[in-house]
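Question (not urgent): is this output format expected?
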Amino acid sequence: MNIVTPEFGLIFWQVVIFGIVLLLLRSFAWKPILSSLKERESSIEGALRMADQAKLEMQELKAGNEKLLAEARLERDRIMKEATAMSNQLLEQAKDKANEEGTRLIAQAREAIQNEKNAALAEVKNTAAQLSIDIAERILRRELTDQPAQQQLVDSYLKEVKLN
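Got this back:
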């Protein structure tokens, strides 16, 4: 038997054995292998479809989140504008109220000062009148204690008074 040039019988039996092994493998090994490959292929395709579907859902969710975020930003801006406007309005009202209160207090203070001034002037007048009366009383007592002085005072008053 020569290995380099095989004989016809050797080739025949090798083909027959190869055919038998091929039939045995086809019936017992290839069907389970092919069915497991088909199952794996279908599970991979299913996983890819689910991944694509999940990707689409994620894109939809992302778009929805971006829309909600944009709406939230708009709402925040609107609320901030309203709060700013309201705080400005409250500040203006507080300033106006403070100005009115200040004006009212100034007017009350001026009125109180004027009343105190009038009261002080009245008191000064009363004190001056009392002092004048006291001085006149002392002068008259001194003048009236002396008889010749009394006569002279009456005469001077009579001269001052002119009768028509």
